[in-house]
Amino acid sequence: MKSPSKLSVVDLDLYYGTSQALYNVSLDMRPKAVTAYIGPSGCGKSTLLRCLNRMNDFIPSCRIEGEVLLDGENVYGEGTDCIGLRRRIGMVFQRPNPFPASVWDNLVYGPKLHGIKNRDALREIVEKSLKGAALWDEVADKLHSPALSLSGGQQQRLCIARAIAVAPEVLLMDEPTSALDPLATARIEELVRELKKDYTVIIVTHNMQQAARISDDTAFFLLGELVEFGETRGVFTSPKNQKTEDYITGRFG
Questions:
Q1: Angle (nearest 5°) at CA 178 between 174 and 179
Q2: Tens of pLDDT along 4-48?
Q3: How many structural domains does the chain have?
Q4: What is the mean pLDDT of the chain?
Q5: Taking the model in full, what pTM does it have?
Q6: Which terminus of the chain has a smaller tally of CB atoms within 10 A, N or C?
Q7: DSSP conformation class of 180
Q8: Half-sphere exposure (Cβ direction) of 245: Cα atoms closer than 13 Å
Q9: What's the CATH code of the domain at 238?
Q10: 67 contacts 11 by C-beta, under 8 angstroms
Q11: Is-contact 10 213, C-beta < 8 A?
Q12: E-assigned strand segments in 88-169
């Protein structure tokens, strides 16, 4: 039986001023699964990802029609608390972006913002988040060292730990390994497979092999349109659309 959707996009169109960037996109993302968005540069996959927790609200010219449903509730509905929404739907960006502060301060920032002040509670959150991001053993004795002194791969895992410190339900990842070396990339991929035990994960990636390795479902985008969406194995081994097959086999993109 098909799992109910954790997050759904329904008939979504997106415009930057008069220019349309997404066309009538609809898809359902399963809970505690990894959904990958693939497609060539400029196809709309990162734009759609930022719609899911309303990060596009920061772009004045951006206008959205349609719905994004989190547990059936439209996140673009009147009265939506965007801070609360972004706690429920966390985000990890393309390049590691730790705050220029200590490892500890990076991790307690979100919980403090949401009202947690007790130091014992914060210490527990820090340890749990770092363990969840497979980083605790490497930084347990460096909690008060600058986050920027960590390696690139460690910084990205710290950003994942920072995202999960506020106990989100969904994690958005926008090409989280594109700035990392192969070893660090493998660590993040292994981590994503672990994270889906507790979170719904949506990842944008240019790397089709990565999508094939770590995702349960794959959405292929081209020129702002969703061309094909389904279980990853089927999309990669027997795509239903010729454009998908052409992209996957390297005929373009």
A1: 115
A2: 799 999 999 999 999 999 999 999 999 999 999 999 999 999 999
A3: 1
A4: 95
A5: 0.94
A6: N
A7: S
A8: 6
A9: 3.40.50.300
A10: yes
A11: no
A12: 89-92
